[in-house]
Amino acid sequence: MALKNRPVPREPLPDADVHSEGFRQTREARRSALIEDYVELIADLIEDGNEARQVDIAARLGVAQPTVAKMLTRLCADGLVSRKPYRGVFLTEAGRKVAEESRIRHQTVEAFLRSLGVSAETARIDAEGIEHHVSAETLEAFRKAMTAPR
Asked: Which bin fits 149, alpha (ψ -120 to 50), beta or left (φ > 0)?
């Protein structure tokens, strides 16, 4: 019998408080994912060409410019970006910190997936979602697994 066809025995449900914490963390990750994606992209655009413009952000995220404008207003209010008329979007110190933390998580997840034999393109795409949901403990386990002798 192939492994993929074998049913996995279900573990008993954890205590309600423990169970709800997992769902709370997932909801929080969903809320922060969009912010992290924008801030990380802005950092990448700035590094690539010294400017992040609303039109470029919209094109790279595959969304309409009004959607980007709304998010940029939120990011400004949150103190993560600043905007200059007729220029572009710039990260504040807090925004740079969020971008760097997100980039490190993304690179770690992507490298781990690649170490498992996942193709570069699939690893890049999958890491884009996983990076927001992975805990510091799991990231550390990924790093250890990648550096462990084989």
From this structure: beta
CA–CA separation, 139 and 87 (whole Å): 37
In angstroms, rounded to a whole number, what is the distance separating the alpha carbons of residues 60 and 86?
A: 20
The token duo for 149 is 């002798």
Q: Which helix (H) or strand (E) holds 81?
A: strand 81-83
Tens digit of each residue's pLDDT (9 = 90 or more) over 104-122: 999 999 999 999 999 999 9
For 19, the token pair is 């169970």
What element of type H or E holds 89?
A: strand 89-91
Q: Give the 3-state secondary structure percentages of the chain, helix then strand then coil, rounded to 5.
A: 70, 5, 25
pTM for this predicted structure: 0.75
* DSSP conformation letters of 13-65: PPPHHHHHHHHHHHHHHHHHHHHHHHHHHHHHHHHHHS-B-HHHHHHHHT--H
